[in-house]
Protein 1
Amino acid sequence: MKAVESVKTPDQLHAIEHLLSAKHGRIYADVWRFGLNTALRITDLLNIRYSDIDTDKRLYTIKEGKTGKARTITLNQTALAIVERRRSENPGDEYLFQSHSPKLKRGVVQPVSRVSVSRKFKAVGDELKLSVNTHSMRKSRGYAMFAAGKPIEYVSKVLNHSSTGVTMRYIGIEAEDIARSYDEFEL
């Protein structure tokens, strides 16, 4: 089984979003883009209700499901635009990423499933020859921040990891990256 990767180039990030939208629907592309911009774990991301978002202050406060830690996330313009567009297109929805599947029982409101999102992400990743799943959004954001020069401690804090070593492994900083740094940073 191949390890899930962070997506390391803007072209690959956009290709994933495009294929998700074209082949599986805008909702999956929105999950991808929103996840890249918030670094939330998939279960926390899918459980976002419009009532939990303060669009005036651009804030979303969450108690993380995995860690139980409270976090407040400032929504950047991209994430906020997704919220506003989805709300205007689906004014009756309770969840940001609400399922409209006819398989649901009448009256049962729920977000799209983690399994469904995972399958769509994997299919697109396979097509692009990338190992992608729902963790790839968080990993890719962390990698992009690190590659842009943010200290690993900062990236670790954003991802809410307990150590920088966990963060480095998580975002895919590997031996080849470290070896390349010797050529990139001559003093």
Note: DSSP finds nine helices and three strands in the chain.
Protein 2
Amino acid sequence: MTCFDTAFTRCPLIAILRGVQPHEALDIGRVLVDTGFTIIEVPLNSPAPYQSIALLQDTFGDRILVGAGTVTSPDAVGEVASHGGRLVVMPHADLAVITEAKKRGMICTPGVATPTEGFAALHAGADALKLFPAEQLGTKALTAWKSVFPRSTRFIPVGDYS
């Protein structure tokens, strides 16, 4: 069982700290950890995301999985890793990004919108599949996908940022 599996089994939700600034990250992180969250994602389009990731990892990394979302390039994977992040969440299924994350021993959850993307991402080493945008895919798609993907596949619906 991977650290992702352990964390996701304890709490099958991922806290996304969208727009959080570094001076807010620890207070928010503390509340999340105290209420049982085990996975925290800081999107790279947030203010100073690498600083927030480093603060969260240094403070809570022995208890939870911390990483970045909106990771769109292999170079960004390297930056996340250099700041202590162990999780890469993507809006897309770029195989080069997945490969870089796995090469660095990181957990990777690429965004997929088709079964073709999903199977390719799993083949490249993805740990879970982020259904994105979830509201576009709907519950019927998830039901259909679950009938053809390996039983162990974890699906994480994400979307609707309004």
Note: The CA atoms of residues 139 and 157 lie 9 Å apart.
Protein 3
Amino acid sequence: MSTAWAPAVRALAFRPNIRLQDRVNWQIRFIEGDLTTDEHLRLSEALWSPAPELTDEQRATWLATLDEVAFVSDGALPFRDNVDHAHRHGVRYIAEPGGSIRSAEVQDACQEHRIVLAHTGLRLFHH
């Protein structure tokens, strides 16, 4: 598996006030590379130093290596776009509690993308 840009992602120097989930979200957006002008500005404000640009070739090479990825959630997946997005990143297996009011939509998306879906019945995340 090619990890040509993985060091660039790990090297993103976030300011200490940036929450973990925001860091993860920024890393994903950085990898995807289609940041809006506003997102570029907000990412630069979240970092101590500018992020290096990843080339389209680096992204395509990396995404081509992603397959057989497992995705596990301790809370129900609330929307089908969670599955659509996961599919773009090589996810082939999802385990989640189930029980969302949109679980049928999530299940349909998994079938459409040929993703194996397992409902654990165990919800650890609560609002």
Note: The longest strand covers residues 91-96.
Protein 4
Amino acid sequence: MTTAVFPGSFDPLTNGHLDLITRASKIFDHVIVAVGQNTAKRGVFTPAERVAFITTSTQNLANVSVQIESGLTVDFLRDNQATVLIRGLRNSTDFEFEQGIAGMNRSLAPEIETVFLNADPQYQFVSSSLLKEVAQFGGDLSALVPPAVAQGLRDRLERG
């Protein structure tokens, strides 16, 4: 059985993320979505809220589970007996960035293989940072995020 991990901050989860999770679930026996905290950014949602959004949005995918991650991603993979690290690529900038991380991960854990999945063209422009900015100004994000996330963003912004 091959277990793969798709790590990210998922703040918020986008339809691009969901597309990659769905596609990975067709390739690997088990996919763990690892919700981490990006220390360089202030989150809109707590890790627990992000886990809830992902769990709700992937409930139709029997081989997908969601966990909170802290520490080194390669340690998380080892702790979960995973051998594949999934990363999504939207463009060449993502590739350059991810290539360096993949090299470091290979140095730390040669038994773990990084697999890059290209973003669906309809989501290549979507980033969580851009979505948060659009949401702040009341833009309609319903085509870009799962329904639970769209509602969560509206609720969070109404509360300030």
Note: The helical segments are 15-27, 47-57, 73-79, 92-108, 128-136, 147-159.
